[in-house]
Amino acid sequence: MKELELVKEKINKFFGSALTDKEMAKLVKTSPDMITSLRNRDIEDINFGYIEDIYSAIANYDNTIKQQSQNYLEKLKNGEEKVFYIKDKYNIKTNKETQNKHSLYRYKSGDEYYYGVYSDDVSAKGQVDSRKNTDEEILKAIEKEIWGCTVEENVQR
Predict the structure, then answer these.
(1) How far apart are CA 19 and CA 24, in angstroms?
(2) What is the pLDDT of residues 88-111, one digit of tens each?
């Protein structure tokens, strides 16, 4: 029963993501009109065959996110000073308390660079970065932060 709840949660997150109906349709291998229809239904009312297709598409999307996250991590580790903002379906995400923008970043402090994720969604402290965290922890934070979102590159700060 708990597994079914996790499936429902993941499908609801997928349908609530910043992906367009066209992007989802490509992943699920159906029409954008069908995705629009599915997004507007309660999950309990969706045909089980579609649930299987959607869940399979989510698994493929998870793999894509893992690959993108690895690419972002490499850009942050090896690039210049840079910021990538995280955008949900409508706006750049901001921290609830500070209103600072959620971001993937690489900054310079003195002669040293550090990189990481700024978001209250990934840490109670709002930040996971190379000064205190491993690359694996940063990678997991990037995956969590960009899932269902778009990433916009910003100019150097």
Answers:
(1) 6
(2) 888 899 988 888 899 999 998 888
Nearest to 155 by CA among 91, 86, 84, 101: 84
Domain ends where: 41, 69, 97? 69
Q: Could you tell me the two tokens for 106? A: 């690489």
74 is a domain residue: no
> Both 15 and 45 in a single domain?
yes
**Distance in angstroms (rounded) separating the CA atoms of residues 105 and 83:** 4
By residue range, what is the domain housing residue 40?
Answer: 2-69
Burial per residue of 115-134, b for 16 or more beta-carbon CB atoms within 10 angstroms, e otherwise: bbbbbbbbbeebbbbbeebe
For residues 129 and 106, membership in a common domain is answered with yes
Cβ atoms of 18 and 102 within 8 Å: the answer is no
Query: What averages of pLDDT result for each successive group of 10 residues across the chain (157 residues)?
Result: 76 86 86 87 78 85 93 91 88 87 92 91 83 95 91 70
Residue in the block written with tokens 């499936």: 7
CA distance 123 to 62: 21
Task: Write down the pTM of the prediction.
Answer: 0.81
